[in-house]
Design goal:
The complex is a heterodimer of chains A (204) and B (210). Helix content of chain A is 7%, strand content 66%. Chain A is mostly beta strands. Chain A has a single domain, classed as Porin, CATH 2.40.160.20. In chain A, strands 1-2-3-4-5-6-7-8 form an 8-stranded antiparallel beta barrel. In chain B, strand 10 and strand 11 form a beta hairpin. In chain B, helix 4 runs parallel beside helix 5. About 8% of the residues of chain B have low confidence. Classes of the chains: A mainly beta (204), B alpha/beta (210). Chains A and B meet through strand 3 and strand 4 of A and helix 1, helix 2, helix 3 and strand 1 of B.
Chain lengths: 204, 210
């Protein structure tokens, strides 16, 4: 949670120093995504930085924007060798738990302030999530794929590298909730928090 | 120029596709998988047939061999040097901790089958039951082992305990216990990791004790 607090602090400072607005009409972003699972942490607890997000936003006016975004993360955890008892037997192995997590969603954004450089916003995305849960043990594999609805509230900021520049940076903090539960692995719906940093291409 | 800038992002899907990592093979085969199953008709809260056993028989220096790519029915030490004899010895030693090894002529209580399965598709269809018509040595009679697993196309060591006292009306002998150990083909230390796995098979089957 230290990451969360740090990000919110930085975000607050950025909002505070925002100056005069500089509009853009659309923006394409690509970013590195770090995802911390909050659900079923006995399956995977480890924060994953193996993620990427790609999205497009079209401003409807100087405050509201709509967009599309796709994201992908791989989360994994190593479970050391141990014995699992089951009715009529037992199995001993070490296991690599993997969760391949894709989302495609539409979102709406509200620009809090169009600053000279910083443009903080809040957003809400909704769409489809694809979860592939996979267990690797020795050379064997077991997997279950699920898809479901996902919702992602988000706060973030855009940053123009310099005035009138087409290039900028983006940082965002968001929460994912996806109903991609796996009955096969007894894994509940997925939830997690994202921290994304990336680059943005603006069109004015 | 604007189009060119946007084209920069077209490489992103390729990154996404290439970002489906999996554990390294060398890490995955650090340990062999050991799965054991027992016949719940003979081992349950009120009964453990292993408590009644006194003696067993095992074919020494030989493993059964079931393969879709070979007509061989047995493996001997010369076929896989450093593997067959140590592994069979280890299995025999495991049972000798609680039971007496005897010969076929001594009317053993159970037989121990040791079989290597190579590229052999076999699937769970029924629970263990009576599986070996006429002989408790599965591979002697050209009968494929009556196994229970979802593995396929791998090389697996199968150890089976077949009861020699309770054939059914069709002269079939029940499989009491099975251990699946794999994968034999992927490991970097076939004898060492197999022996480690055999030890684990007994370790996780405490009912095989008198």
């Amino acid at each position: 949670m230290k990451v969360t607090r740090s990000f919110l602090l930085v975000f607050s400072v950025l909002v505070a120093i925002t100056a005069q607005a500089q509009l853009y009409s659309s923006a394409l972003h690509v970013g590195w995504n770090t995802l911390k699972p909050l659900s079923d942490t006995d399956f995977i607890d480890k924060t994953s930085s193996a993620g990427i997000r790609l999205g497009f936003t079209k401003l409807m006016n100087d405050k509201l924007g709509v967009g599309l975004e796709g994201s992908y993360n791989t989360m994994h955890e190593y479970v050391p060798r141990q014995t699992y008892d089951f009715p009529g037997g037992a199995i001993t192995t070490d296991i690599y738990n993997y969760h391949y997590y894709f989302t495609i969603m539409a979102n709406g954004q509200y620009i809090l302030q169009q600053g000279k450089n910083f443009m903080p916003y809040v957003a809400l995305g909704m769409g489809v999530a694809f979860s592939e849960y996979r267990l690797y043990y020795n050379i064997y594999e077991d997997n279950d794929s699920q898809q479901g609805f996902v919702v992602r509230p988000e706060v973030g900021t855009l940053f123009r590298i310099k005035e009138y520049s087409h290039w900028g940076l983006k940082a965002a903090f968001s929460y994912d909730y996806a109903n991609t539960k796996s009955a096969y692995f007894e894994i509940d719906n997925f939830s997690g928090i994202n921290l994304m940093v990336g680059v943005v291409l603006f069109t004015d | 120029m604007q189009v060119q800038r946007w084209l920069i992002f077209l490489w992103m899907p390729f990154i996404v596709v290439s970002c489906m990592p999996a554990p390294e093979d060398v890490d995955r085969i650090r340990y062999m998988l050991v799965q054991t199953e027992y016949n719940e008709d003979f081992i349950h809260d009120n009964e453990n047939i292993f408590d009644e056993y006194q003696s067993f028989v095992i074919r020494e220096d030989t493993m059964g061999f079931v393969s879709t790519s070979s007509s061989a029915k047995y493996l001997i030490e010369e076929d896989v040097p450093g593997f067959v004899e140590p592994v069979v010895d280890s299995i025999r030693n495991g049972f000798e901790l609680g039971y007496d090894q005897v010969t076929d002529d001594d009317d053993p209580d159970f037989a121990v089958n040791v079989i290597v399965l190579q590229n052999f598709d076999y699937y769970q269809t029924v629970n263990y039951g009576y599986g070996y018509p006429g002989s408790y040595y599965g591979y002697y009679g050209y009968y494929y082992p009556y196994v229970s697993t979802y593995y396929s196309n791998f090389v697996t060591l199968l150890i089976q305990v077949v009861d020699a006292k309770n054939p059914n009306g069709n002269n079939e002998y029940p499989v009491i216990w099975s251990a699946y150990i794999g994968d034999l083909n992927a490991t970097l230390d076939l004898p060492g990791k197999t022996l480690e796995a055999v030890h684990q098979a007994f370790e996780q089957s405490p009912y095989i004790r008198k």
